[in-house]
């Protein structure tokens, strides 16, 4: 069937009729995408948008980057295999070469890599299985506010209880620890004292025989909590968690599925704190826009049996070619440094917006992984932080941004945080335009008090 000449409204109606009620993005981003290039997408009606969602951070080089397209075309033109399970190919070996080249030397020297099913959540499942097999222990320590995926084990680690309520059979041996957050500190302190208190709490919990926590198989954390609203872990806290886990020989799993490969201003976000994890989960950017997920871990943990973790599509050759091209381009063009520079520029502009409007409670994040949280100062709020998160206001701003040609996603408590995840190739001038659109959208909503739009069915 040809869809030439059809518009957004027709495709959205057809999608609503045929797809499941679990679909999410079309409810708040009501368009169908016709084409895309770089930092922009064009919908079926011919309208163009800056894409600050970018496949939830997947598209490090933006849409249809020539380097990535060329790499995939070479595979297809040479009649290379497209699917090989875990059998070696030149494309796979080149991908691993590039992946290891991107890692800190200290980590790469003793690293092993496991390919798994091509979603990040399966990398988390594999990491959990790995540390449980290596240690013989069952319990896992995660953090409040965490998001690690939607499969059973990964979902058990999630801090959002609403998402877990209807799901039976989740792991019962997960313990959630306080994650440092300057704006919504779980201890009501914030700043350096807040993150010191958070790390001391973890250490004392592990030392306390009455804590109810058995010897853990591992600790898993995000160096920047993405779905929680771009909440960065303080470097000092991450160093303390690394010390605590190392002294107790507890494997530290760092989930960089969203942060990895330059997004935060370093190749990997754990490098801000100058630490090395035992296990690293990666997906999104390392596949160059195609499905690919891996677990990279210290060889001392490599004790599982053949076939202990598999996945039919772990041999996706196109994704490996696209991933190799993406990693090489990120390294050759120092896109991590670029993300730090233009990310600081974008943050400065977002903070200028925050200074104008009391309804903006916090601007935070790292590199090109930023969040702007909206608050309601009149709402009685008993949770952490000074003011209630204003999800309705954030939704209205998101809709106004969309009408003005800017795609942003929401996250955080009550979905009150506008999140910015533009491709790493975004230019300074594009950042300025994105910030201007956002500022105008915030002004329009706050000065006109536009209500949030109704959610589409």
UniProtKB/TrEMBL annotation:
Originating organism: Natronococcus jeotgali DSM 18795
Protein family according to the UniProt entry: Belongs to the class-III pyridoxal-phosphate-dependent aminotransferase family.
UniProt entry tagged with the keyword Transferase: yes
**SUPFAM superfamilies with a match to the protein in the record:** PLP-dependent transferases
Against PROSITE patterns, the record matches this protein to:
AA_TRANSFER_CLASS_3
Q: Which is a Pfam family this sequence falls into? A: Aminotran_3
Keyword hit for Transferase: yes
Name of the protein? Diaminobutyrate--pyruvate aminotransferase
Q: Which UniProt keywords apply?
A: Aminotransferase, Pyridoxal phosphate, Pyruvate, Transferase
An example molecular function term from Gene Ontology annotations = pyridoxal phosphate binding
